[in-house]
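The freezer alarm interrupted the setup, so I double-checked each line after restarting. Inputs confirmed:
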Amino acid sequence: MPKNPIIQIEHLSKSFGDKQVLSDINLYVRKGEFITLLGPSGCGKTTLLRMLGGFTAPDSGRILLEGKDISDVPPYRRPLNTVFQRYALFPHLDVYDNVAFGLKLQKVPEADIEKRVKKVLKLVSMSDYEDRDVNSLSGGQQQRVAIARALINQPRVLLLDEPLAALDLKMRKDMQIELKEMHRKLGITFIYVTHDQEEALTLSDTIVVMNEGKIQQIGTPIDIYNEPVNAFVADFIGDSNILNGKMFRDRRVAFIKHEFDCVDEGFGENVSVDVVVRPEDIYFTNDPAKCQFTAKVNSCTFKGVHYEMWVDTDTGYELMIQDYDPYPVGSEVMLYIDPDDIQVMKKERRFNAFPARVTGEGRVMFLDTEFECNTEGFAVDEAVTATVRFEKVDLLDHEEEADLTGNVVFILYKGDHYHLTVKTETGENIWVDTNDIWDKGDFVGIKILPADIKLVKAESGDE
Amino acid sequence: MKAKKVFARAYIWLLLVVLYAPIVFIAVFSFTEAKSLGNWTGFSMQLYRNLFGGAMQNSSALVSAVQNTLLIALAASVVATLLGTLAAIGIFNMKGKKRQTMTFLNNIPMINPDIITGVSLFLLFVFLHISQGYLTVILAHITFCTPYVVLNVLPKLSQMNPNVYEAALDLGATPAQALRKVLFPALRPGMISGFILSFTMSLDDFAVTFFTRGTIGLDTLSTYIYADARKGGLTPELKPLMTILFLLVLVVLLVINMRQSKNNEKE
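Predicted 3D structure, all chains:
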């Protein structure tokens, strides 16, 4: 941690009803940096920002501003200002009075107010709009007024809640450049919330990737892109091929049934891992000596700057490749990957493991459901761990015959199969490997055969 | 085809005649001197002169009834507008079932027959040993006006950007300042229509006033006219009074309509 972070967040947690939206968030923000909270909708990023603004109270944990605990300080006494998602301008005031609102409350002399309003409107390029009715402005102009209104109070930190989400693409790109320029000029700390990974990569000094109320990774845009720590981050930021692999030893990894040199160390020997290869990092070659594997081009789409191709490897995996030159569909190509471009990640789990209780001879209870399975060697009422391999979980499109039901919440394509996260009705996750195509949000029946449930002693979790 | 059109025209005119004939009738006969309704004895402004010149019998009672009516309507609608706006904000910030229940509870007094509202308030005041008079009439009017304000303010709240209140806090306004400087101005159209509605509801109320005014001889216009009509026929001077009231309400309605169409244009 740096010496004097402007904001420190310690063990912050929050639930709405029985839904945990933030769990044990720890984060610090350096003075003057542009930090982005990035994640899909519902990941908790907006809740975290609202807590910084003081609009939502944390259940536990605290927020320090320049070393002082501000968790209990109401929003109107926090030296932070917010730019809201849909501008939230005051409809009954004109541009000038919207911007002057904060200063008028502080009883700043009228002459000073006028000077400062003019200055900040110039900063956001809205100089000639002082007397305009805010309802007559375009979305982009309203956003500029909202930014000016927040900046005029000279906040220690500016909070921005998806400020560009409502603008069209061209306008958004222009505003991104202007925001970055404003940040550089003012030297104020910006905390920015977005679900747009490209926006985060463009603007930020630091990106905080969040999912399901937890921080997944904190790093510079380059770190996050090149060295994602898990499959979620790799999938969320940019395009990627995410594959199951095995680390043989340091700097030697196998995936798509081929062996590759890589630069990662310290995983141990013969350890299952996840491997990420960016589509622009798989190269075509004509040199048989360089070729590591061959593949057949399956589809080729022009994407503006590059072509996006899907290829089937000689070993039966599907990979995405981006290249400036197209290769005809059906052609056989030789491919290689640089050791530098192979990102190896620790697998978060290798199989499902649920806390369970033996409820009787041949019966066990987990996920709030009773299953049949072999309970030999375990006493009735004993707490155990039930393990199920990913590919042994069956998903059904109907409820009959299913043991329990859930919704598909996350889908990862692993080259030859899909790895799904299914959330049960009671809010627990089951991970499933399948060749069937499901969509995010699908309602599914879940079935596990008695022979596929293996019990082990509680807590050990080994197969 | 043509016959159909003529029939449609005729129908709407018939409807308008039935609706407005009684009012027009009173207005027309306010310009003649005849004591009994329906007798035309030539055009005259005498009744108007009597009404404003104080030459009618019992004119001081009428003047005090008008004063009472206006005072009660003003007090009740001001308080109801404040209470109703705050209640609407509260209801709006509730979630799901709770909000539904509260909206439903708010609607009941509006469809509840006036006579029941009046009698039950009467019983309540007796039970609480509150001596009936001005205060109880005003309280009673506040109770039946407030739901109308809530109903007028709620849609303005849902039209409002939900972050506007928070934006005010964010810029340094205390909750009270945010309410005064941001929420009230944003809700003003709803508050004004709620206020006007309350005012007119209070003006023309008879049943509730009748049961809550007690025995101190407090009269509003409606109870005065009622008593007057029972005492051997309507005093002729009331005809011009009703005509003037009708015109006043007409003007208010026109103003509201013009405001609304101006607002719509703006949006």
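Quick read of the result. The mean pLDDT of chain B is 87.
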